[in-house]
């Protein structure tokens, strides 16, 4: 088992130099995150930590310390492209995911957290600068060795040359330790790039994943480890009884631990009580948990909660005045003087994140130290959690971030680490806790349900003069089940500022408050309606539902006033060049307004989120009013400079899968105080045979990178439902489509 030691920069410079030579140099970073400095590459010995991001071994093997979570989206490779471009090194590198230093703090968030499509834009300048500084240090070391001016040396392919003299980066590391990096190194111009923006670079993790050598937290084992299974109470409930003796009669079962039965033992005031069973294997722990026959109770109003009551409450919220999120012009006067008005109400359900790897964590509490292994989007929160539960200072805590089998916002939460730490403290041994699919899907953290009422005023000439968007639903930052928890998880980050303004939850109004369309009179409102279902951010967050609400209504509005749906959007985006260019590119490539085969129809939807305008045009047909055959999806986006074209294509393809699932299949119903769908037999996902043909076009730009991971599927649902209307005349105002009897061919 790895020993935990406190390593200062001074001692690390000395020890790494003694082990074979190395360099450490400082970069200007935010003074946030864990309150200590430790080695970036905790489990590596020998060689040299060049900076917080790169370790170079004596054999010239390079390990890249990726500051973002690699959960299948390709962050490790794209961030490496930024660093490697300036470092002038061999392409091949080993991915590592160090934690616990301020260098890994996401500049746009203030924590070491991956989400919100911030990894690439957040580290764009940081990693290029760090790579250029490292290259300078290597060149200066070589120049000193050879007695020549640094201008006579050049770096390429992990080697410095000067005339017939050559030295590898591994050979130069010890000497480079004494060099001072330039504060503002010269960066390459785009014309000089050999890696950034170029296709064909293999993902750093591909071979590991193909061979099965890739280490997820679910793969980690340590000496003396026991396994754990968990039973969490249905939302709003409490533990009534459990049978410890029956659980211990199961072969291999060791302990039965109760967490939060009376008052939460875990530091957060709204944690879900649970029974945890430990055993020699996970299978034995699961059988022990079944034998324990944990019985739960809920308050009557929770036990009787169902989808119909939730829907009624959401719609009642739309009848309230609500809190104002945006007010442009004079909406009351404009709607009052309108010659015509149009209103429509829409609704979306709770959704699960459904990452392939279920929640799991390994915690080893040793009294005076804690070491953890976890797949998470938020290792920064892990340190906060660990410190508050154990009372240990953060210099006695180390969290190993591993590869992650999907996140989509679910792994911003780290309650599974909390449970694992509590269990390790109770049994005085390393505990590896693994959620079953049913436990995760039924009892923890989902995308909130929402309803929205859209209203527009139209003057006598057919111009839209008033726009109102009223949202009703839970507030991720405001909910009694979430507010204290989030404030603790984001403690010390500036990110928390501005999440609540004038009684409006930012993520509930996201994509509505900042709508790109130019209406003279805009009124955006939010009514908080809470339910006991635990909620957290899901990919795209507020944009996911608000894009559906807005773009569905835009289509209804265009039809109502007799305008082409594309032309109406075009007119309303006339003052937004990036957005307009994206809309027009998608329409052009899809041949909007051109002839289509008999029975085929087009639908269009546009949305701007995470500073990345996106437009989808869907061509489909409908058989028998039920079977939807999607013939082609044409996509356009302005996400700034595309760092990694291959990753870009992969994200777009994944977005198509997400969009199809979100539109046709995925959504929770509530019955008798529980979520009815608990696994993939009832919470359906698209089959590979249902994958739609698509093409994607990036708007040419010289702008810095913006987001791609979050916005990839916001516009698919409304583009599909708008196309269904064009094909059949049927308006659909709620998701998913399977509840309307419609299926994906």
Describe the main β-sheet briefly: 7 strands, mixed
Count of folded domains: 3
Residue fraction in strands: 15-25%
Annotation field: number of helices: 20
Question: Per CATH, which architecture of the largest domain?
Answer: 2-Layer Sandwich
Uncertain spans: 1-37, 263-268
Helical proportion? 25-40%
CATH topology of the largest domain: Aldehyde Oxidoreductase, domain 4
Strand order of the largest sheet: 10-11-8-18-15-16-17
Shape: globular
| The CATH fourth-level homologous superfamily of the largest domain | Aldehyde oxidase/xanthine dehydrogenase, molybdopterin binding domain
Count all strands and give the number. 30
The span between the termini is 52 Å
Radius of gyration over C-alpha positions, nearest whole angstrom: 27 Å
Return the average pLDDT rounded to an integer: 91
Structural class determined from secondary elements = alpha+beta
| The CATH C-level class name of the largest domain | Alpha Beta
